[in-house]
Design brief:
This protein is α+β, with helices and mostly antiparallel strands. Helices cover about 35% and strands about 20% of the residues. The structure holds (2S)-amino(hydroxy)ethanoic acid and manganese (II) ion (2 copies).
């Protein structure tokens, strides 16, 4: 049934596209040369597995079984510094299950690698457009941190596009993924059956002050854009204290200063503001505090303030029957070594939950590390995970 050697060989082959040269890390951002080459390779593997390969206008790569089928997969693009398993594991596991079940006459399995799940241009943009959550025209206007638009980026693989895929052909979606957190690794368990995925909000905030000489401009006269970010961050941490829970997270992960020079008071700061929680109303309250705090900082320091488009996804529960099949399969494959758990990371499954039943399963991340070159998982856990995925698909077939 599952061929562990073939499965691990494919995982290691995919890792070579954009290998960072540091550990098993990868640098494979959406629409980059390595990402496009990886997608072409995936399409070949899908064809070799007897599936019909289809690449849509966003660069999502599908391997289609004939007739109705369950869809398995994830994404194969990475963070600017990514791990070899984030997304890639779910795509290769899907391919392996599709092959194994095809060899025994079914059930039918289709495979997908979504594009730009890591949000070089937004938030899970490939599956957001495919699922109708984000309009193609609006997506095309999104820019990366270097200012390139998604339209310009996806044009690089326009020659590979072979057409759209109708979601109605799929009976459901299951995504296998690394946990990207410490829970399973710390407990010594092998499998996480996901109960729900958090919601997220993400936007760029810009402070515009006055570029000036770092030596001759008295501190009291400065309209320093970085000082505004610093004051905003300190005030925000204080004001969120009685709104958040220990599971709520918020991150300023990217800051660009202009002109970014040691002897110049920065006149402009553009930074990413991202927050996540399991409750939509808490996400909204946090948004109100973020906007209010930024406005106060700008006003008291005499700077201009602007907000970029707010991108986001609502928290979502996993489908009960898919989740039950994963739990039964986990109990068979890893008795006593599995648990139900929430996902603090975002996944394409959130977008697909608007169209079909979805569920997810996790395998451990060693030391809970992800979105870093050190990301890794023990081989026996990878193999247990793909066996659970296949068993769940069998349990779900009539
Ligand atoms: O950020 C996330 O949760 C996902 O890994 N892109
Ligand atoms: Mn991922
Ligand atoms: Mn990721």
């Amino acid at each position: 049934m599952i061929d562990p050697t073939r499965f691990l060989d494919d995982l290691n082959r995919l890792r070579c596209f954009g290998a960072s040269g540091v550990g098993k890390g990868v640098i494979r951002p959406a629409y980059g040369a390595a990402d496009i080459a990886a997608r072409q390779w995936l399409a070949e593997q899908m064809r070799a597995a007897g599936l019909r390969a289809r690449i849509d206008a966003m660069g999502n790569v599908f391997g289609l079984a004939d007739g109705p089928s369950i869809l398995l997969g994830s994404h194969s693009d990475s963070q600017p510094e990514g791990g070899w398993l984030d997304g890639a594991l779910g795509v290769i596991a899907a391919l392996e299950v599709a092959r194994a079940l095809r060899a025994v006459g079914g059930p039918a399995v289709s495979v997908v690698s979504f594009q730009d799940e890591e949000g070089r241009f937004g938030v899970t943009t490939g599956s957001a457009v495919w699922s109708g959550h984000l309009d193609q025209g609006a997506a095309d206007k999104l820019t990366d941190h270097a200012g390139q638009t998604l339209a310009e980026a996806r044009a690089k693989m326009a020659d590979l596009v072979t057409g759209g895929v109708d979601p109605a052909r799929f009976t459901g979606f299951i995504e296998m993924h690394i946990e990207q957190g410490p829970t399973l690794d710390a407990s010594g368990e092998q499998i996480g059956v996901v109960t729900d995925i958090v919601g997220i909000r993400d936007m760029k905030i810009t402070f515009d002050g006055q570029q000036n000489h770092a030596g001759t401009t008295p501190m009291a006269l400065r309209r320093d854009a970085f000082q505004a970010v610093s004051a905003f961050n300190t005030a925000l941490n204080e004001r969120l204290r009685n709104v958040v829970t220990p599971q709520t997270v918020w991150t300023i992960g990217h800051v660009s200063l202009h002109p970014n020079a040691s002897s110049i008071v920065p006149g402009r700061a553009v930074f990413s503001m991202q927050w996540r929680d399991a409750q939509s109303d808490r996400l909204q309250r946090m948004e109100d505090i973020i906007r209010q705090t930024a406005q106060e900082v700008a006003a008291t320091r005499g700077l201009e303030l602007s907000f970029g488009p707010l991108l986001g996804l609502e928290p979502v529960e996993m489908d009960a029957s898919l989740k039950a099949a994963l739990a039964e399969a986990a109990a068979e494959v890893a008795p006593g070594k599995w648990r139900h758990m929430p996902s603090g990371a975002l996944h394409d499954a959130t977008n697909l939950s608007r169209l079909m039943p979805v569920a997810m399963l996790f395998v451990p991340s060693i030391r809970g590390i992800s979105h870093a070159f050190e990301e890794d998982t023990h081989e026996e856990d990878l193999i247990a995970g793909v066996q659970v995925l296949m068993r769940a698909v069998q349990l779900l077939s009539p």
